[in-house]
C-alpha cells in the first residue's frame, strides 16, 4: 500500500479517568522513512500518545491513520507492523539476548509455534544477524540482567526489528544512558530510518532532537504546540516552547 504518512493523528482526545484530559485535541503527522522526535516535559502526554498509536489505549475522540489504514476499532493487522519500545525496554531479565530478540518474531510465527516458542533455523539466524548488526555479536547467550544499559537498548531495538516493522515507537529509550552511548544508539536508529522504517521517539533532551530528528513535535499539557523541523526553532526555541 502506498502512503506518505506513516502516522496521522487528528483531534485526538484521551482521559484515564474520564475527567482530566491527558491528550487534548492532538494533531500530528509522521512522514514515512523519517525520524520524528516527540518532545515534552513529564506529564505532557507523550507516553500516552505512543500507547494510543500502538493500540494499548483507546481514545475517547479523534481519528487515527496508521501506515495508511484508518482505525475506528480493529487494530490487530497494522499493530503487527508497529513496534513499541517502552521506557523500561520490556526485556525479560532471565532470558538471553537472543531469546529476548526472538520474542519480536512471535507475532509472525503462527499461533502454534508462538505458543511453544519454537522458531525455525531461519528465524534464529535472522535474530543473530540483528544482534550482530547492532554490535552484539558474541553476546547472544548473555542474560539480559548481565548486559550493560547500552547493550540492553540494542537488544530492545533488535527485538523491534524482528517484527519487521514499518513504524517504530520508542519512549525515552536513551534517557538513562550517558551522552556518548546515547549518541551511538541514535546513530543506529538513524540508519534504521534510512532503510525506510519510520520512527517516532519521545525525548526531553533538546540536543538529541536537534542532532538526530528529521522532524520535531513539541507537546505541552496534552497539546501539540509545534510541528516542523528542529532547525526552524533550534534548541533555544524548543526550550522556550517547553517552558
Properties at a glance:
243 residues, 4-stranded antiparallel beta sheet, 9 helices, 36% helix, globular
Tell me what you see in this structure.
- Helices cover about 35% and strands about 25% of the residues.
- The protein is α/β, with parallel strands linked by helices and about 240 residues long.
- α7 (about 180-195) links the parallel β7 and β8 (about 200-205).
- α6 packs parallel to α7 (about 180-195) and α8 (about 205-210) packs antiparallel against α9.
- It is globular.
- The model has no long low-confidence stretch (mean pLDDT about 85).
Layout of strands and helices, then pairs:
Layout: E1 5-15, E2 21-31, E3 35-39, H1 46-54, E4 61-66, E5 69-71, H2 76-79, E6 82-85, H3 97-102, H4 111-116, H5 121-133, H6 149-161, E7 167-171, H7 179-194, E8 198-203, H8 206-212, E9 215-220, E10 223-228, H9 230-242
Parallel strand pairs: 3-8, 3-9, 6-7, 7-8
Antiparallel strand pairs: 1-2, 1-4, 4-5, 9-10
* CA-based gyration radius: 18 Å
Unreliable residue runs: none
Secondary-structure element pattern, one letter each: EEEHEEHEHHHHEHEHEEH
How would you write the strand order of the largest sheet?
6-7-8-3-9-10
Q: Average pLDDT value?
A: 86
What is this entry, summarized?
With 243 residues, the protein is of the alpha/beta class. It contains nine helices and ten strands. The chain is globular.
